[in-house]
Specification:
With 206 residues, the protein is of the alpha/beta class. It has one domain: DHBP synthase. It has a 10-stranded mixed sheet, with helices on both faces. β9 and β10 form a beta hairpin. The radius of gyration is 16 Å and the shape is globular.
Amino acid sequence: MLVRLYNDNPNSREVRRVAEALKGGEVAIVPTDTLYAFACSMEHKKAVEQIAQLKGFRVKQAKYSMLCSSLSQASEYVRAMDRDTFALLKRCLPGPFTFIMEAAGSVPRNYQNANHTIGIRVPECGALRAIVDEVGVPLIATSVRPLDDTGDEPETYLDPELIHDRFGSRVAMVVDAGLADDQPSTVIDCSDGIELVRQGKGEVDL
């Protein structure tokens, strides 16, 4: 199923439709301000296992991000931040960044990386944030792109209609908010100091 949502003014009925599927334990493909992502509600562990299968990795090997609607929501799922880290996140979010943070006890262990961290995202994407608000909890997500060379054209993972052709039969729905950016998010590790891990779409002076 392909569901069209506009970032500037997402249709509330369609937002509820997507949110109900996620709250029911389904997996959807959702937009961000970078790449599209496989996503599910953090309350459904079996859906996270399904995402691992879709991506082609074991659950324990996965590096998930937590998609949040606001910095306030994100702060509920990470350990207390020092002043400099909080100021950095406040400056950058919403935006195309993934911040690796020490996970709080409220984050199930199988969503965390091996060193008990989690990637936090608050994308500048109105459709996504409306969905997360309606679900009421963050989404667990990983980008829709192959781990290895599949022979697919790059557009397969940027165009929601082509994403639907590729994965539509394996997920509840694909949310179409237009073409994705061809760059991933910029990744900054804040779990032990502040370190740039990957330069992507987001630009920031550290």
